[in-house]
Amino acid sequence: MTRHLVALSAGLSQPSSTRLLADRLLAATSATLDERGVAHTTEVVELRDLARDVTDMLLTGFAPPRLADVLEKVRTADGLVAVTPIFSGSYSGLFKSFMDVVDPDALRGVPVLLGATAGTPRHSLALEHALRPLFSYLRADVVGTAVFAATDDWGANGSTYDSAGRLQSRIDRAGSELATKVEHYAGAAEDDPFGDVVPFAEQLGR
């Protein structure tokens, strides 16, 4: 069975450190799955490209085709990487708006890895007091290690240059944790609305 991983990047600029972190987390997860011989595909979704579509759905209740396609990919994903910039101590408005149009049951039991970026390390706790509660509310299976990257964690060419390698080490650990959950994820069970219906012949026999 081929696993499908989807990364959501809520970065607003191009290039974006948020997208960079999403790519690194996805690559770390993919590398671990490769080592374990688990077939998989990966895809990155830039939420900035869906901003107008998200607004339209919030106003009308209907998803434009492009957004509907992304929502279906999220619903059927075997693993999700979700990365947002931090503004005013919490996730971005774009990230929250997108999550508001995701079906409340779409992420139930889905393995999720959380990441965040900001200009200063002072925002690092937003992962725990903002993002983790959001995905817990959605009943996702969130990995224990979340990854925060401040501006100073990136080199000029996008490489990690913290002297102790702490960021890359955390990325690798988080990717390994997500890979483990993805490897054992059974997939979303389709609810059968008629699964509990008693056959007519059996009803007559009662």
UniProtKB/TrEMBL annotation:
Q: Where is the NADPH-dependent FMN reductase-like domain?
A: 5-153
What domain of life does the UniProt record list for this protein's source?
Bacteria
UniProt-listed InterPro entries: CE1759_FMN_reduct, Flavoprotein-like_sf, FMN_Rdtase-like_dom, NAD(P)H-dep_FMN_reductase
Q: Which Gene3D superfamilies match?
A: 3.40.50.360
> In its keyword annotation, does this UniProt entry include Flavoprotein?
yes
The UniProt entry, under Pfam families, shows: FMN_red (PF03358)
Q: Which UniProt keywords apply?
A: Flavoprotein, FMN, Oxidoreductase
Q: What is this protein called?
A: FMN reductase
Taxonomic lineage: Bacteria, Bacillati, Actinomycetota, Actinomycetes, Micrococcales
